Amino acid sequence: MTALPPVKETKDGASFAVRVAPRASRTAITGMMGEGADAVLKVALAAPPVEGRANEVLVEYLADLLDLPRSAVEIVAGEQSRNKVVRARGRGAAEVAAALQRLLTDK
């Protein structure tokens, strides 16, 4: 069983850590990095980190995977970094964790 990134319940939804790799051949979840509370979801992005394009692709991709509108997914920390914290509004931590587990298992 693949380890999950810690998904935290917040008053506005659920948040989790992501490590992005821009300029990939395709956008996809590539696995996990770290363990326990330090674990992060690794996502390859088929976009360069120029003018916020990689962030836009990340938000679109995660919104699609979590079946949320783009406006419900936001980067709350790390906009200029490969390490980011993403919030999914309208979903609980358990629901987001279950969706991520399915995606990691199907990978």
What does this structure look like?
- By secondary structure, the protein is an alpha+beta fold.
- The protein has a single domain, classed as YggU-like (Conserved Hypothetical Protein Mth637, Chain: A, 2-Layer Sandwich).
- It is built from two helices and six strands; from the N terminus they run ββββαββα.
- Strands 1, 2, 3, 4, 5 and 6 form a six-stranded mixed beta sheet that branches.
- The chain is globular and about 30 Å long.
- The mean pLDDT is about 90.
Index terms:
Conserved Hypothetical Protein Mth637, Chain: A, six-stranded mixed sheet, alpha+beta, 107 residues, globular, 2 helices
CATH superfamily: YggU-like
- Rg over CA atoms: 13 Å
SS content category:
alpha+beta
Report the end-to-end length measured between terminal Cα atoms.
12 Å
Multimerization status:
single chain
CATH architectural category: 2-Layer Sandwich
- Low-confidence parts, pLDDT < 50 over ≥5 residues? none
Q: In one word, what is the shape?
A: globular
Strand content: 25-35%
Q: How much helicity do the residues have? A: 25-40%
Number of DSSP-assigned strands: 6
The overall pLDDT average reads: 89
Question: Within the CATH hierarchy, at the fold level, what is the topology?
Answer: Conserved Hypothetical Protein Mth637, Chain: A
H-E string: EEEEHEEH
Characterize the largest beta sheet: strand count, sense, and whether it forms a barrel.
6 strands, mixed
The total domain count is 1
The CATH class is Alpha Beta
Q: State the helix count.
A: 2
